[in-house]
Design goal:
Blueprint (H helix, E strand, L loop, with lengths): L1 H9 L12 H11 L3 E5 L1 E2 L2 E2 H8 L8 E5 L7 H5 L10 H8 L6 E6 L9 E5 H14 L7 E4 L6 H14 L2 E4 L5 H11 L3 E4 L1 H14 L8 E4 L6 H11 L2 E8 L3 E5 L7 H5 L3 E2 L3 E6 L14 E7 L21 E9 L5 E6 L4 E3 L2 E3 L1 H9 L4 E11 L3 E10 L7 H10 L10 E5 L12 H13 L1
Parallel strand pairs: 1-4, 7-8, 7-9, 9-10, 10-11, 21-22
Antiparallel strand pairs: 2-3, 5-6, 11-12, 12-13, 14-15, 15-16, 16-17, 18-19, 20-21
Helix pairs in contact: 6-7, 8-9, 9-10
Length: 457
Amino acid sequence: TVTYLACSRIGAVINPLMHIFRERELNFMLKHGEAKVIIAPKSFRGFDFEQMITAIQPGLPHLQHVVVIDGQGPNSFEALLSGPEWEKEADAAAILSAHRPGPDDITQLIYTSGTTGEPKGVMHSANTVMANIIPYAQRLQLAAEDVVLMASPMAHQTGFMYGLMMPILLKASAVLQDIWEPKKAVEVINTEKASFTMASTPFLTDLTRAVTDNKTPVPTLKTFLCAGAPIPGPLVEQARAALGTKIVSAWGMSENGAVTLIRLDDPDERAFTTDGLPLPGVELKVVEADASGPALPAGTQGKLYLRACSNFGGYLRRPHLNGTDAEDWFDTGDLARIDAQGYVRITGRSKDVIIRGGENIPVVEIESLLYKHPAVAMAAIVAYPDERLGERACAVVVTKPGQTLDMSSMVAYLKEQKVAIQYIPERLEVRQSMPSTPSGKIQKFKLREELRDVAAN
């Protein structure tokens, strides 16, 4: 928090980075962003960050300063604080004034989580970020009296915007949980009287189970905003019963923040059947091809375009990938449908579409059904190549502890759900875990690559 406020004061751009990144990821991001200063802990979760950064620094020509929290020697935080107090020098005020950023200057660089491949550097200004946070907090009826629990990393837009910046704006309290441990989260909620949290679906599953198993209620937690993946209906029902908390579904991206949310007075069914209504100031359009075309009728799936003041300032050094047209419509890369009441349902990524012999397979609907299977903890439907049909669907699942799933039982289950035979996956892969981003999103491109390699061999 202090680093962000300091960067904003002097006109520097903050680039939060995930603690799970190692040499490969850091080399790319620090070079691409031309970082001049890096601040890192000496160690975290048993890993020596100082040693890693020291090893890669010679290959990073722009990196001038390394500051190590709890470190020793010239790179330590103590050494930095014991240096000359340049801000007290005669020309310091003039220097700070000259570098004071405007509201439209880039203040944040955050790398996409990489669900489609190499990450892109998303640039935001104070205006684009605040244009999202203000209506977001208003929709959720958050105020200074609230206590925000944030277990999502600050290097993810969820943590940065709603765990760091929003509490400052609201003058509310924030509790940051650096390592997710459900039982500890229950303790923190009750000790700090947390009233709001936001996280991905697995966090909601974990918290519900922890409260149920330990019979420890969380009466102060009013709202759990869940995003990043569809919320299974049974989970909403279980969470409501166990937590007594309003479950809010939402959709957003690093490029524009969480821009659709259900309302607090919406029926619970909205949380697992929709991804919410656009926030004030957000325009959405579902079209067949590009944004210049007419909006499709209500309930029709198409490509989702967005126009909003919260939309990002572009991708660093990759303007050709910005995906924003002359009318400021941004291609989200998502497929969606909007119902007659204006509620949005994300139905997949445009690259997730599986076309089997000319027939589009409704990927998200099949995944949602698999999530309802009692043996399934995680599920993803991805394409694999086929000479005759072009591609077929493969179900990749992680089962719950002590549970099993085979092809015949999966097919029988989907038939019971009245799924068209053409939509039923023709292959099943059961794994111990899924490749995923730090926020819990499944990296389908890695699954597709694995299946392509298997098919090629």
